[in-house]
Task: structure prediction
Amino acid sequence: MNALIIEDSRTERRLIARVLTGAGFQVDETGSAEEGLDHLKNGGVPNLIVVDWVLPGMSGLEFVRQVKNDPRYAETRILVVSIRQERKDVREMLAAGADDYIFKPVDARSLENRLPVIGF
Result:
């Protein structure tokens, strides 16, 4: 299984990568949504994308909308990690096509527990 992490915090990326690697994923990482889109154009179709909402440049929300409008990624699961904790924000991201949403700071156990919920 392949995963792409899009997170501007190196610390958060490392934690997420460690959890996903432990769950059997091959992990690629980028620090922005634009880099994530470039990676998708050149790197195939990941099984899972973990994306932060608040990123430099393009937001995670716009990234999710673009990815979910592309039929190549219809089966790709998207997990959002964000400091944005208002109910309306969660609803907006899920309506855009995200499969699940967890709050920052990311806790390894919480992330591990969400993987089966989204099909892993």
In short: The mean pLDDT is 95. The longest helix spans residues 10-22. The chain has one domain: 2-114.
